[in-house]
Amino acid sequence: MSEMKRTPLVLGNKTLKEITDDICAPVETIPSKEWVALFLGAKTLFIFYILTIAVVVSTGMGLLGVNSPVAWGTMIITFVFWVGIGHAGTLISAILFLFRQKWRTSVARTAEAMTVFAVMTAGIFPLIHTGRPWLDFWLFPYPNQRGPLWVNFRSPLLWDVFAISTYATVSSVFWFIGMIPDLATLKDRAKNKIRYTIYGVLSMGWKGTAKNWSHYEMLYLILAGLSTPLVLSVHTIVSFDFAVSNLPGWHTTIFPPYFVAGAIFSGFAMVITLMSLVRIGFPKFKDYITIDHMEVMNKIIMMTGLMVGYAYGTEFLVAWYSGNDYERYVFFVSRAFGPYAWSYWTMIFCNVVAPQIFWFRKFRRSIPVMFVVSIFVNIGMWFERFVITVTSLHRDFLPSSWGQYAWSMYDTAILVGSFGMFFTIFLLYLRVFPAISIAEIKPVMNVGKDEGGH
Amino acid sequence: MGNKKSLGGIAGIFLEESQVLQAARKVRESGFIHFDAITPYPVHGMEEACGIKRSGLPYVTFIAGVVGMLAGLGLTYYTSVSDWPLNIGGKPLFSLPAFIPIIFELTILFAALCSVAALFVVCKMPKVDPPTIDKDLTSHKFAIFIPENDVGFSQDRVERLLKDLGANEVKKVAEY
User: Fold this and answer.
1) pLDDT at B5 over 60
2) Residues of B with CB below 8 A from A219's CB?
3) CB contact under 8 A, A219 and B127
4) Which of B34, B55, B86 is best to mutate for the A interface (most A CBs within 10 A)?
5) Distance of CA A193 to CAs A100, A141, A198, A199, A204, Å?
6) Nearest CA-CA partner of B126 in A200, A415, A57
7) What are the tens digits of pLDDT across the range A92-143?
8) Contact status of A163 with chain B (Cβ, < 8 Å)
9) Which of residues 91-150 of B touch A (CB under 8 A)?
């Protein structure tokens, strides 16, 4: 029986020193013109976003298109969109770690960073959506002078407060702990005192002794084990925001797995978008984030895309099988053929049809093709949340209360601006932290090479 | 910097992973017990070679998880049942199924943060500007450090042992 040959995870016969040099290079050299151009663009958009938020907060939520009956709009849609994107990072860094998928190593750091920044971006939306963000601390159960009047622990919206804040905390800690040995590397390579001090403080005195590594690897395993149920719980709880209500189109038991699959789907699409750009910006990284890595992630996109498509179908089946007039109406009349049918079919095309091109190996391994598909999936997954939120609300039980979402230019500004925030932080990250885990890539550098292996 | 004074000793610098693994095994066989191996990445088999016991961190995780779970249960019970009972939608005051997400999240939060804190304690972190043997030990070199208080430590013996094991460089370390 012939042995299956593994594909190498790191291309080129690199020495340990070359790996360190390659990965530290973006942090230690003057940024390229492309990076500066991207950063200036993202930063300008970010400033525009801050101004938009200032106007919306100072004037009021009425600037956005939310009204009765569509009381949840851009804020909630875009919140779910960004939280969803955050899921791929933890899937790669925690779940694939538990499954001993060695290919995850090259992309884990950046995917985890994407998670942290996406959750940061997402967290702003519900805070503004409350309408009076200066009172947002009321969301937390703290002893107060109003009774004390406690929060309502029976509400899914409060579960969300706990889920998102726990997720943001644990994934940031997981990300940072993973970086400590690499920050020590950057400290030891520092050529000047300021750099030495900053990375010295950040690396917290990491020495890399065998005893330290022994505890460290155990902690990494523990955090991966804790993050795995956590990441599944977060989008489950986000879906409860909808599923626990009685509204047709929201009140479905399929929501938790459907949301989690969609989150992983959109998150991997964002990883592909970012990695395609990183590969262009830092050509050396092509040896670490190889076309094989991209292909594996495209396979995951195709698989989760099929799961999402299956969920869309199940919703129709259950609506028909329930025999409930309102359920049937929402799916068969208002969602697929109503005034927002264009958004529904945009979603179907982007999420179910477009990824099918990945059945062909040639397209799975083509950067331009996967970049375009990943953009389609990002758009499609935003529309999925639009479809769920708006089309369920705009036609409820009573025809006299039907209405449309009054999309305003502030909705557009908030949506587009949030990308400015995300990309500003992400581009800064690429310059400040090693974008690939130096200490994790070294043990797998010989995978798939003839002379290596145990 | 810490309460315990740093110790001096002798370190051998190695260039190959296989060498340092072999050296750790031999140093341990020679009777040294307080030595440590410094590597830029976790080396497979190093724990066995150095005779390091399995990390105790999971015990911290478990206890912290249980505390977090009880804290979640206590918080929801105290606020919803005991301190100010409110009838919300006719649901029971103690609506356990609705409290499970809160209890779950607090379990994870406590377990994760306490495990990280435990790592900091056992690794004596954070420490600003720790002593360094060689700047390349976080990049591409490996080291075995034998402190001067180790059993049977003598400068000649240690230097010879590390040289024989293939150390590229043997140097005295004032404090580590």
Assistant:
1) no
2) 55, 57, 115-116, 118-119
3) no
4) B55
5) 39, 44, 9, 10, 16
6) A200
7) 889 999 998 888 888 999 999 999 999 999 999 999 999 999 999 999 999 9
8) yes
9) 91, 95, 98-99, 101-102, 104-106, 108-109, 111-113, 115-116, 118-120, 122-130, 132, 135-140, 145
Show me where the domains of chain B are located.
9-53+125-173, 57-122
Strands of B169-173's sheet in order across? B36-38, B142-147, B9-14, B169-173
* A215:B116 CB<8 A: no
A16 part of contact set with chain B, CB < 8 Å: yes
Q: What is the pLDDT of residue A229?
A: 94
Mean pLDDT computed over B126-155: 87
Output DSSP code: residue A350. Answer: I
Q: A244 — contact with chain B (CB < 8 Å)?
A: no
In this prediction the ipTM stands at 0.93
Q: DSSP secondary structure string, A204-241?
A: TT---BHHHHHHHHHHHHHHHHHHHHHHHHHHHHHHHH
Domain residue ranges of chain A, discontinuous segments joined by +: 16-444
Q: What are phi and psi of B14, to 5 degrees?
A: -115, 155
Helix axes A367-386, A74-90, angle to 10 degrees: 130
Please tell us whether the domain made up of A16-444 is placed in CATH 3.40.50.1110: no
Query: DSSP H helical segments within A244-340, as ranges?
Result: 255-281, 291-322, 325-328, 336-337
Closest CA to B162 of B6, B22, B51: B22
- Rounded Cα distance between A152 and B88, Å, is 8
DSSP string, B75-105: HHHIIIIIIS----TT--SS-HHHHHHHHHH
pLDDT in tens, A166-206: 999 999 999 999 999 999 999 999 999 999 999 999 999 89
